Amino acid sequence: MAIEKLTEEECDAALADLDEWKLADDRQSISRVVKFGDFSAAFGFMTRVALIAESMDHHPEWSNVYNTVDITLTTHDAGGLSNRDIAMAGKIDALL
Ligand code: HBI
């Protein structure tokens, strides 16, 4: 089943509940930067997100430098933002 790209209105409505996430200028993705106390805490968080990604079959574009994790969510199959990104952002926020 094709994954539908969110309309601009759907996107804006969904982001109203995701205050920590920034919408890219091209509206194709959302991003959040999270800082932890140390590398171990950051990597533990990444491990938990990785398990969520596998359970959802939806994977972040992310980078880690020591205690900081920079996460970007977009749906490659939809060519932009989909409900999967919104759902994943909510699950990530619930870990923090
Ligand atoms: N993750 N972010 C993201 N976007 C996708 O389109 C995507 C994915 N993980 C797995 C996945 N698609 C597979 O369903 C397809 O590659 C078959």
TrEMBL record:
It comes from the Bacteria. Its EC number is 4.2.1.96. Keywords: Lyase. InterPro entries: PCD_sf, Pterin_deHydtase. GO terms for molecular function: 4-alpha-hydroxytetrahydrobiopterin dehydratase activity. It catalyses: (4aS,6R)-4a-hydroxy-L-erythro-5,6,7,8-tetrahydrobiopterin = (6R)-L-erythro-6,7-dihydrobiopterin + H2O. One of its GO terms (biological process) is tetrahydrobiopterin biosynthetic process. SUPFAM superfamilies: PCD-like. Gene3D superfamilies: Transcriptional coactivator/pterin dehydratase. Belongs to the pterin-4-alpha-carbinolamine dehydratase family. NCBIfam families: PRK00823.1-2, PRK00823.1-3. This is Putative pterin-4-alpha-carbinolamine dehydratase. It comes from Altericroceibacterium endophyticum. The lineage of its organism: Bacteria, Pseudomonadati, Pseudomonadota, Alphaproteobacteria, Sphingomonadales.
